[in-house]
Design brief:
Blueprint (H helix, E strand, L loop, with lengths): L1 H23 L6 H18 L7 H5 L7 H13 L6 H22 L4 H31 L5 H26 L6 H28 L9 H12 L6 H17 L9 H8 L3 H12 L3 H18 L8 H7 L5 H12 L3 H12 L1
Helix pairs in contact: 1-2, 1-8, 2-4, 4-5, 4-6, 6-7, 6-9, 7-8, 10-12, 13-15
């Protein structure tokens, strides 16, 4: 009966992998995640289903696991950037699979060697993924007013879970033989199912709401890199430009546009985008995102204090202040005002009475 349950979970896992591939294949930002789901589905079919038992597919199916690490890295990269699978990425995946095939052909299939090597490769992929996330967060801070902290946290959690699964898989090879095969098979399915579901949640969130994790363009990344490396000591000219910028903010309130970006604002005032970013970073000592959201919070505070806004909902005030959602409004208000919008409004009511 236990073995039948193992087969049942294996079938569910394989079916889930192909279902997730179908749901995410049409979206450009999650297409590489779809490829990942296809590979783990094929791997599961070759190594778990009866039709492949005792065949060359069964013997060498584990080589597909070596494609997981590069595919995860490339999928994270595609999720964050406006890029897709190119020739170098495809070659990286093929080389990883070929390397796994060579390891198995050399007779190491029943030893801990494949698991240890696979774990090492996955460590490298996860480290590279964290670097991509860090660069992404910096780019968003320097070029847009969006808040992506929750999305970044989700992806970071997925990478950590993936790393934990990699360690467990390596441990599986070390203790192979000490635990019955049905239990080991079931353990494999559960750990793989855990990471597949985590990645699925991220993929489906992006498919349902592309702005949940907005992809950044090449020019935005270049601008962020230039600003990060630039000298933060303001020059006299930058201080004068900062005064002009503050005057423009007071007169035109561009931060009320929920889709404002550093390039869009630069076009409005007729400055190069890099010069605008350097002025904000050097003089105000904040990023573009922090500058815009702080001004939005000040706008919201002014509305909450106004008597004519007493009957307005917090969502209406959030939208009127330039935020595109109540969650972003609450997050930024708490960050810059120290309290939630609800508490701030309550404090005003108590002071006025």
């Amino acid at each position: 009966m236990q073995f039948e349950w193992v087969n049942f979970f294996q079938f569910v896992f394989i079916a889930l992998a192909f279902l997730l591939a179908g749901l995410t294949l049409s979206n450009q930002s999650t297409r590489l995640l779809a490829v990942f789901f296809i590979v783990i589905g094929v791997h599961g079919a070759f190594s778990r289903l009866p039709f492949a038992a005792g065949t060359v597919l069964d013997r060498y199916s584990y080589a597909l696991a070596f494609a997981y690490a590069p595919l995860i890295y490339l999928a994270i990269k595609s999720l964050l950037r406006q890029c897709s699978l190119d020739l170098s990425g495809a070659l990286l995946v093929l080389v990883a699979v070929a390397f796994g095939g060579v390891i198995l052909a050399l007779g190491y299939a029943d030893t801990a060697v494949p698991g240890i090597l696979l774990t090492a490769i996955q460590f490298v992929a996860v480290f590279a993924g964290f670097r991509e996330l860090r660069k992404y967060a910096i780019t968003i801070e320097q070029s847009r007013a969006s808040s992506v902290s929750q999305a970044v946290a989700w992806v970071r959690s997925a990478l950590l879970l993936y790393l934990a699964v990699a360690v467990l898989q390596a441990g599986r090879f070390v203790i192979a033989g000490a635990i019955p095969d049905p239990v080991m098979n079931l353990l494999d399915v559960f750990v793989a199912l855990g990471i597949a579901l985590t990645l699925a949640v991220i993929a489906l969130k992006v498919v349902a709401d592309p702005d949940w994790m907005p992809r950044v363009s090449g020019p935005e990344q270049e601008l962020a890199a230039q600003i990060t490396q630039a000298d933060k000591t303001p020059t006299g000219q930058q201080q004068e430009l900062a005064k002009e910028l503050d005057s423009y903010f007071q007169a035109n309130k561009p931060y009320l546009d929920p889709d404002i970006t550093v390039r869009k604002l630069a076009e409005q005032i007729g400055w190069p985008a890099r010069q605008l970013s350097e002025v904000i970073n050097s003089v105000d000592k904040v990023t573009f995102s922090q500058k815009i959201n702080r001004l939005r919070v000040e706008e919201a505070k002014a509305q909450l204090q106004a008597e004519q806004s007493a009957g307005k909902s917090l969502l209406d005030i959030a939208l009127d202040s330039g935020f595109n959602s109540k969650s972003a409004f609450n997050l930024m208000f708490k960050r810059f005002a120290g309290v939630t919008p609800t508490q701030y409004r309550k404090n005003i009511a108590e002071n006025s009475s």
